[in-house]
Amino acid sequence: MAIKKLITMVSMMALLLVTLVNPGEPSAKVESVQKSNFQMINSSDTYLEYSFDENGESFKIIEEFDDDFKGVSSEIYIKNSEGNYELFSEQKSTIEDNNLVIETKKDNKINTEKFEFQTPQINSEELIKIDSKDAQLLSGEVTINAVTDWIYYDTSKYSDLVTKFTIGAISILIASRIPWALAADVTRIATLAYNIFAPNLYYTILWYYKWDGSVPVAEMKIAYVYSDSQRTNQLGNAILTTKYMD
């Protein structure tokens, strides 16, 4: 049976289920950093500008995303004694194979760091039926004519260290994990993680299928993003529903 994609529907929702305390850019040693006064000055699908205070200094970061959302250029400014922002450092963050590569230029010196992605932990279980109403509610009540209701198929769980990253770098990392997510919603989740100073992001992706006999006729993937390893503090989710036909 020749199968082709007919309908693809993406929905994503950033859930404001967190309390924003001491927002700011994550650092390697959380206990030594005091951040406050985070402000998103301007944002779009391709541009971010935000400021914050850290340990008595004021910073501003301007970030622009590449067209493919696999890279972001960042300019980091620090406020001088005259109250003006001056360039402190520049960064270029890119997704390369299974790595997030961050190149930092400061004082005419370039430092490159490479952060390897964690391999997804696959949790395969026996196929079980779930309540189709719940699945359709999550997917925006997409109506697909198929023999079966949504049937659970598989789960993947993994996590990423985001402690040292800017909002832009966190955004392209999330987008590489959940490529069907909308750019604006990815940056919204990244901003939430940044604001609560989350050292890691935790993902759970569920697969569901509808079947015509032994042939899958529809697929639904649901990705959840959390700030804690217990996966109780959800920052957002992204849902992809695809219908197939002859």
Describe this structure in words.
The chain is mainly beta and 246 residues long. The protein has one domain. Helices cover 13% and strands 53% of the residues. The chain has three helices and 13 strands; from the N terminus they run βββββββββαβααβββ. It has helices at 132-138, 167-177, 183-195; strands spanning 4-14, 35-43, 47-54, 57-65, 71-79, 85-96, 99-106, 109-116, 121-129, 151-161, 200-212, 215-226, 234-245. The protein has a seven-stranded antiparallel β-sheet, covered by helices on one side. β5 (71-79) and β6 form a beta hairpin. α2 (167-177) packs across α3. The relative contact order is 0.21. The model is unreliable at 1-32 and 122-131 (pLDDT under 50).
In short:
This protein is mainly beta.
What are the salient characteristics of this protein?
246 residues, six-stranded antiparallel β-sheet, 3 helices, elongated, disordered N terminus, signal
